[in-house]
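Write out the 3D structure for:
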Amino acid sequence: MAILVAALATLCFAYTLNLFLRGALKEAIGGALGLLILVVLIASFILQGWRFGLLALVGAFALMGISQPIARRAARRIMGHRTGIDFGDDGSDVAARLAKGDSLESVLSQLGRETQNQRQRLERLARQPAIASVLSAHRVSVDDFEKAFQLLWASGLQDLAWDIVSVPTDLDALLRMKHGRKSDAEIWAHFRQST
């Protein structure tokens, strides 16, 4: 019984962790872990009876829920901030902040600060030798660099935008696609499929 519980807990954590990671094998790993969880659940029904099997079934869902914060932290340690699911509230949802009772003035003030911080971060990135080399090769100014970042953000790649503009090969691919007149959908698909 202890082996089944340990196996189920380990597999549930691994499955939850996989949700937060990226990579070409993410779906295959998730499928394999899901299948292993199913095998452990079936084994618990067969070896321990229906009561333990039912408890294991409910426990699997509970274990995944409980392990989610730990898996999220582990994924961030493994991948930096480039995780597959972003459950964090970055505070930029204007409607939600207004609904919470924040004043329009404070929301706009905070958005202004966030925009200024974003610009400063992009300027620091643009000064890094590897990034500066890519920007120079494509004849991209800091203003155009910021527009490219905003394009990524607006196209639904918020969770990857900083990574793409921070990694020279990803930035080069982005700028090549922009110069090649690729659509936002094509750019989105390229970066979603390559992570």
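The chain has two domains: 2-79, 107-193.
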